[in-house]
Amino acid sequence: MTPTPNPSASFTDRAVGAILGSAAGDALGAPYEFKPSLPDDVPVRFTAGGPWNLGEWTDDTSMAVPILQAVARGEALTDAATRGRIVAEWQGWAVDAKDVGIQTRQVLALLSDSVSEHAARAAALAVHERTGRSAGNGSLMRTGPVALAFLADGQELALADTARRISELTHHEVDAGDGCVIWSLAIRHAIRTGELDLRAPIGALPAERRDRWHAFVDVAERTAPRDIPGSNGWVVAALQAAWSAIHHARLAGEGLQLTLERAVRCGNDTDTVAAIAGSLAGAAHGASAVPAPWRRELHGWPGLRADDLEQLALLAVRRGSPDQQR
C-alpha cells in the first residue's frame, strides 16, 4: 500500500468532508425522496420524513460504510478478497435494512452464503441480462471512500480501475462504471487540491466514450438539477443533477449547505443525488462546512454517527494507522 505522506489539516478536513458531506446530503434528501421537484422559493429543511428519523442516512451511506471500514483497517481495495468481504457485509446488512436499491437487492438475492467478488460480478451480469439494463445510480453513491484509498501520488489509474471493479459488484453496465471512475477521480482531485474539476477525469475513460460524457457535463452545466432530462435513478442523470447543483452553487459563490439544498430540489431520488453531490462538494469544502446542527444528528446503520464516520475517514487517510505518520 502507498500511504499518504503527512496530510495537512486542510487536506484531512477535505478527506473527511467527502464522507460527512455525502452522509449529510443523504440525510437531507431522505424525507424528499420520490416527491416532485421543489422551486427555489420553497425551503429545503433538515428534518424527519417517511421512514427516516431526523439526521438518519439511508442505504446511500450505509453501502459506503463497509468500503470505508475496509480502507480504515488498511485493507487494499485492489484485492479481490477485500471486495468479496465488502459484498458479504452488504449481504448481511440488506437482511433488515430499511431500504435497499431495487437493482442491488436483486443482485444480493442471487448470492449464496459463500460470497466472493466473482460471485457478485456473475450475479450483477445475470440481473443485467434478465432486465436488459443495470445502469442505476446505486454504485455512484458509494464512491467517496473508494477515493480515500488512492490519495497518494500516482494513484489515478489504480483508483479508476478499482472504482469500476467495485461498481461492477452490483452494476454491470458500462455507464455505471464510467460514472464511478469520473466521480472518484474528481473527489480525489478535490481532496488533494481543494478544486472542483469534472472534465479532466473524463480523460480516464476509453477515448471513444469521452465526447459522450463531455456532452453530459455540458447539459448539467446549463441545466438546473430538477430539469435534467431522464430519471435521476439512471446513473448519468444522477451524476448530471449532482454536478449541476455543485456547478451552479459554485457560480453563485454558495457553500456546502446550499449546494446540497440545490441537489435536493431535483425531486425523485433526492437522497442519492444529494449524497453523490455531497461526496464531491464535501471533498472541496471540507467536513468543517457541514452545519453543526446537522452533524449532531447524523446517524445510521450500523449504529454509527458522524464522529464515527470521521474517525473511520481519518484512519482511511492514514491507511489504517492511528498515527499521523507511517
UniProtKB/TrEMBL annotation:
**Do you know which Gene3D superfamilies this protein is assigned to?**
ADP-ribosylation/Crystallin J1
Q: Which InterPro entries match?
A: ADP-ribosylglycohydrolase, Ribosyl_crysJ1, Ribosyl_crysJ1_sf
The record's Pfam families line, in alphabetical order, gives: ADP_ribosyl_GH (PF03747)
Q: Which UniProt keywords apply?
A: Hydrolase
Task: Spell out the family assignment given in the record's similarity comment.
Answer: Belongs to the ADP-ribosylglycohydrolase family.
Recorded protein name is ADP-ribosylglycohydrolase family protein
Q: Which organism is it from?
A: Agromyces allii
